[in-house]
Structures are given as C-alpha cells and as structure tokens.
Design brief:
Structural class: mainly beta
Number of strands: 11
Helix content: under 10%
Oligomer: single chain
Length: about 120
C-alpha cells in the first residue's frame, strides 16, 4: 500500500555530519505531518524532530541547533540534516509520516524501516 524507504545512515566520527532521507510511495492523496524518531539500544523510542504541513518545525532539546528537518512535498520526502554529531546520537532512526490515502479518508501513520546511525569518539 504505502511504503517509506529510508537512507543516509552510517558510521561517522564525532563532529561529523549525516543527512537522512525518507521517501513515501504508493497510494497517497496528501501528507500532513512528517517526523523523525530514534531508538538507542535498551532505551525507549524518542521524538527527534517534527515538521507539519504548515512548514513550522520543532525539535528535541538534545538536538536543537545541530539537526534540521525539512521536506520536499513534490517528492514526498522528509530529510534530517544532522551536524556536530555526538556519540549519544547513536541510534536507529525512524521516519514517521501522517497521510491520507484518499480524499476525505482517515489519517494513517506509517513508519520507515529504520536506518542505523553510529557516531564514534
């Protein structure tokens, strides 16, 4: 039906940068909110950044000033630019998209498969 494919994860040294992307495909009428979450081993999944359809953004305090979320509506894609990475940023990152498949239909939330980000000292 709807598939979210993530890319851009990898291994990087502390202070480096990575750019994650997540593209939604399939039957999509309209995308509302888009966001990124992350989950480190043994910890709960936490919100990293959100970008609603209006274009405003909000971030977890731990990433403010370092991460930037953006979206390309024509491509059904959300990005996460991560700068000044720290070892504590190491986690599996998941994108989340809130969308309608048909006009007047219900909103559904879809999750990406996750991409590993590892930051070494």
């Amino acid at each position: 039906q709807v598939q979210l494919v993530e890319s851009g994860g990898g291994l990087v040294q502390a202070g480096g940068s990575l750019r994650l992307s997540c593209t939604a495909s399939g039957r999509i009428f309209r995308i509302n909110g888009m966001g990124w979450y992350r989950q480190a081993p043994g910890k709960e999944r936490e919100l990293v950044a959100l970008i609603p359809s209006g274009g405003s953004t909000n971030y977890a305090d731990s990433v403010k000033g370092r991460f930037t979320i953006s979206r390309d509506n024509a491509k059904n894609t959300v990005y996460l630019q991560m700068n000044s990475l720290k070892p504590e940023d190491t986690a599996v990152y998941y994108c989340n998209v809130d969308l309608q498949r048909v006009r007047g239909g219900s909103q559904y939330k879809y999750w990406g498969q996750g991409t590993q980000v590892t930051v070494s000292s």
